[in-house]
């Protein structure tokens, strides 16, 4: 199964303080893992049809999407939302250790999405 979308741009959520949790997450990872995540994000921007292996909607949650990156036997997830149909705003990242996405990660994504939208969408 594939996710079809018009040309996308990946953006990172920024807190009111200016900090970016996604940048902090990427900076905390080994270089090869961060490089693969960056590669997957560029695929999401460049491909017209993105395989659901890399990007899919989180079931049962309105407007929350997950980017999935497998590397060295580990699975990394970046959660986010679409803004104006074109911008994928990533809000949080984590290493997934269970089959289901932890509820606290989904709630954090929703909280940051609301914050971003309350402040005018893309800043």
Structure write-up:
It is a single chain. The protein is an alpha+beta fold. The protein has a single domain (2-118), classed as RelE-like (YaeB-like fold, 2-Layer Sandwich). Helix content is 32%, strand content 33%. It is built from three helices and seven strands. The strands form two sheets. Strands 2-7-6-5-4 form a five-stranded mixed β-sheet. The protein has a two-stranded antiparallel ribbon with strand order 1-3. β4 (55-57) and β5 (65-71) form a beta hairpin. The longest helix has 16 residues, at 31-46. The protein is globular, with a radius of gyration of 13 Å. The protein starts with a strand and ends in a 5-residue tail after the last helix. The mean pLDDT is 91.
């Amino acid at each position: 199964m594939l996710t079809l979308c018009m040309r996308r741009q990946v953006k990172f959520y920024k807190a009111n303080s200016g900090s970016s949790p996604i940048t902090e997450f990427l900076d905390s990872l080994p270089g090869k893992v961060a490089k693969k995540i960056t590669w997957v994000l560029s695929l999401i921007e460049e491909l017209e049809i993105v395989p659901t292996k890399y990007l899919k909607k989180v079931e049962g949650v309105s407007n929350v999407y997950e980017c999935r990156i497998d590397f060295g036997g580990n699975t990394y997830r970046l959660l986010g939302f679409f803004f104006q149909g074109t911008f994928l705003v990533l809000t949080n990242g984590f290493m997934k250790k269970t089959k289901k996405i932890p509820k606290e990660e989904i709630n954090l994504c929703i909280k940051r999405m609301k914050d971003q939208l309350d402040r005018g969408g893309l800043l």
